Amino acid sequence: MFFKKLVTTNAAQRQQDRDAELYRALLRREAKIGGEIFGSTEPGIRREFFCLDARTWIWHEEWTDQAGKQQIRTTRYDVRPDGILKAQDGQGYQRVGYDEAHRLMQATNLYQQRVLREVYGTEI
Amino acid sequence: MNYQVPGSNSSTPSLEGAFSARRPELQLPPIAQQRRAEVMTSSGFMKTAIINLERAAAAMPRPNEENSLADYYQSHPDFTKQTQHVGQTAASSAAARTEPTSIVDESHTWTNPELAELQSKISSMAQPSAITLNNDLSENIGVPGEHELAPQTASLEFEGMLADRGHVPLTNIQNQLTLHDDPGAPATPASLEVNSSSSFTPINPNDLSPLKTDNEQSGMAA
């Protein structure tokens, strides 16, 4: 009885680990595609853009400044029914203006098209 | 706050082509189906936010609207005179401009009995109710106490007009109207002075206080 329960628990745990690893791999792939939406980046710049969950989008960029110091900027967009809020590098939220919101929407539309086609094999 | 995708620099095999269009959709693992649904749902939330942003932008008064109208009146000096007949159609206004008419027989000289009769007729007419003047206005036109006030009426009707035009309702509008020098001329926006204590102030997005969300407090879910 105990042995059977142990085996079941281990199998469930392994399945959870596999799901978690697959989910992370999907996010990595999506983030790479998302980073290509805004055009090519200069050497030394790493850009990722991805859908963290249905209401949250992340823009992550890393580069090396002239002093040779590694710089990181992360922008988080929270999509709410009455508008979009933005937080950069953990600072306070501010409301996204109309133009930026429109550009963000265009980016997410492209993201959706490419990701669904290239990762999930779904055409929309 | 680190939203870098975990393991981005690791040597985990790429998923490129893992679920290519050649493979049946049913072969997607449940977690991938769940993730795909999440991505598809996100566009709906985005559209809702954008639509509501557009509505909010349309409802916001344009900051230079009054200036623009004032400029227009200034550059069209005849505009004020031509539009004295408020409420007439453009066609009838045009007719009025080309063939000016008057309801007053200026050649007639009024006698005292006629004046008394006219005054009694006026007094027997219905008391003004829909349109009332406040005390300040009554004093300014030299008829103190002639019209009993319904203090809220004028401002509420004015707010209703503004609401119909999509404006934010004004408060404390009473006593803010300054009379034009020419009583016959229609009031122009320049003659409306709104108290600074009114609520007619656009919200500055930069004044929003920082918010905290569950996501931010508990860290990144992924």
Written overview of the protein:
The complex is a heterodimer of chains A (124) and B (222). Chain A is α+β, with helices and mostly antiparallel strands and 124 residues long. Chain A has 2 helices and 5 strands. Chain A has helices at 2-36, 98-118, and strands spanning 46-53, 56-64, 70-80, 83-88, 94-95. Chain A has a 5-stranded antiparallel β-sheet. Chain A is extended and about 60 Å long. Chain A starts with a helix and ends in a 6-residue tail after the last helix. The model of chain A has no long low-confidence stretch (mean pLDDT 90). Chain B is mainly alpha-helical. Helices cover 41% and strands 0% of the residues of chain B. Chain B is built from 8 helices and no strands. The model of chain B is unreliable at 9-13, 80-91, 98-102, 128-162, 165-203 and 207-222 (pLDDT under 50). Chains A and B meet through helix 1, strand 1, strand 2, strand 3 and strand 4 of A and helix 1 of B.
